């Protein structure tokens, strides 16, 4: 993980926070969406078939990018979590690519979308409607670029925090690597339970074994659907976690 984001890596200490909104550094000249797009294109690398997700291309941070080892204060936005394909999101994306019927003809919400990989996989799987949700407006632009990389019309992106909101009639909610704080895990558990009970929504969670999920009460209400080994480089970056799992959330009635 690049130095820009490693200080807030979700396996360490305080976690990443709730993907804070864009913060331009003092004196930044980036003011328009087109300028932000150009900045993303110039400072990420197109990775084809990253890690566990074949057939998808994403703009990500790699060691070839100039900000990989840059001082964090030189990065002009909030921490670029959207530039890392987190292992929970990888598992979820791969599962959707391998089992496209899961999302076919469904209304899908990709919560905490980040780079947008799971939203893209759902769209490729034939979802009737996909909404990506990430409160970082730079992530919203990155998701648009990643959709275009994969020959898709950009999916709509909602930058308002939807956790705890009046849920629409979602057939499927996707969460990749979202359980990185205990308080957030509790908020998600409460809201997702309501979505399932009230509307019959299916909830899929991708997670590499983070303690905030494994030690939370929600863990008892998850059924494993698939697990994927992490390559050696990702094991090192994620502090020894060896696999990422896709869970079906089944709250008690």
UniProtKB/TrEMBL annotation:
Single GO MF descriptor: protein-lysine N-methyltransferase activity
GO BP: methylation; negative regulation of fatty acid beta-oxidation using acyl-CoA dehydrogenase
Sorted UniProt keywords: Methyltransferase, S-adenosyl-L-methionine, Transferase
Signal peptide: none
Cellular component terms (Gene Ontology): mitochondrial matrix
Keyword Magnesium: no
Record field: catalytic activity: L-lysyl-[protein] + 3 S-adenosyl-L-methionine = N(6),N(6),N(6)-trimethyl-L-lysyl-[protein] + 3 S-adenosyl-L-homocysteine + 3 H(+)
Family statement drawn from the similarity comment of this UniProt entry: Belongs to the methyltransferase superfamily. ETFBKMT family.
Protein name: Electron transfer flavoprotein beta subunit lysine methyltransferase
Organism: Lepisosteus oculatus (Spotted gar)
